[in-house]
Design a protein that fits this description.
- This protein is mostly helical.
- The chain has one domain.
- Helix content is 57%, strand content 5%.
- The chain contains twelve helices and four strands, in the order ββαααααβαααααβαα.
- A two-stranded antiparallel sheet has the order 1-2. The protein has a two-stranded antiparallel ribbon with strand order 3-4.
- Strand 1 and strand 2 form a beta hairpin.
Length: 280
């Protein structure tokens, strides 16, 4: 099953099942075009991150889409800027969790926490400028979101072990859930690309009210976890490349992430249709 992603007028069709070198070379060119547009939209190689409070990220959801250029299509510059801001907060949260647990934490916590603390502001911006969210909240699990958004009599909440236990996780959950809700309602294609969110989850999340999504965030901060927590090499490679300012290495590691997301989409089980009451 091919996975379609896009940027402005460009697109990527990634079919994991094909092994042809010629086919893979075409894929590489198309993904590179996508990444070129992503870099131009963010300009993360040319300027330092802008200032402002965390809440400003959410305001960009309302003001995005202004101006001309390749990002005025379905994937907008404001959406990407908010994504980078969330990723910076994500990496900071991992470092905070690592500091709280020290040597008892996982290998990911120890290595990411140590490397993140050694990065200056421009390097942190480079690390955060990935074309996908570095956190996950079970977005691919449509059944989880459906059960939480519209619980029925007899439903029991599934147990999910919390990766983050520091207080900052609750605030970040509000930002992540609200960002996901905004994309699900107004940019479903971006939700699939940036968050790994299938159409069923986007439909469920997009139907929530703002109050409902805030309530879900307050009750399910334990859903937050780093994307690919077992792939320490990927995380370490990202931060080392960001620290060195190695553009080629950063490109490779971001493309690796896109490949992992495409693979997860292909291997995901088919979505079950929403439950409907029998007709009388």
């Amino acid at each position: 099953m091919p996975v379609i992603i896009g940027f402005g007028s460009g697109y990527v069709k990634y079919n994991i099942a094909k092994k042809s070198p010629k086919h893979n070379w075409r894929i590489w060119l198309k993904i590179t075009k996508f990444m070129d547009g992503f870099r131009r939209a963010l300009g993360y190689d040319s300027h330092a991150p802008t200032g402002g409070e965390d809440g400003a990220m959410l305001l960009q959801c309302e003001s995005e889409g202004r101006g001309d250029g390749p990002t005025t299509g379905w994937l907008r510059a404001g959406t990407l800027e908010s994504l980078v801001e969330l990723n910076e907060l994500c990496l900071g949260l991992i470092a905070e969790q690592a500091a709280a647990h020290g040597a008892t934490g996982s290998a990911l916590l120890r290595q990411v926490g140590e490397l993140w603390c050694g990065l200056d502001a421009p390097a942190r911006r480079r690390a955060a400028a990935c074309p996908y969210l570095l956190l996950d909240a079970g977005f691919a699990d449509t059944a989880r979101w459906r059960a939480a958004a519209a619980p029925r009599v007899g439903d029991t909440a599934g147990g999910y072990a919390a990766f983050f236990t520091v207080p900052a996780a609750a605030e970040l959950a509000q930002l992540v859930f609200t960002y996901a809700w905004h994309l699900a309602r107004s940019q479903a294609a971006a939700a699939r690309l940036l968050l790994g969110m299938p159409p069923g989850s986007a439909l469920v999340i997009g139907r929530c009210t703002l109050r409902q999504i805030h309530r879900l965030a307050a009750g399910h901060a334990d859903w937050l976890k780093p994307r690919w927590p077992a792939r320490v090499v990927v995380w370490r490679g990202l931060l080392l490349a960001a620290a060195a300012g190695d553009s080629l290495a950063l490109e490779r590691i971001r493309l690796r992430g896109l490949t992992l997301l495409a693979g997860e989409a292909r291997m995901a089980p088919p979505e079950r249709p929403a439950w409907r009451a029998p007709r009388s």
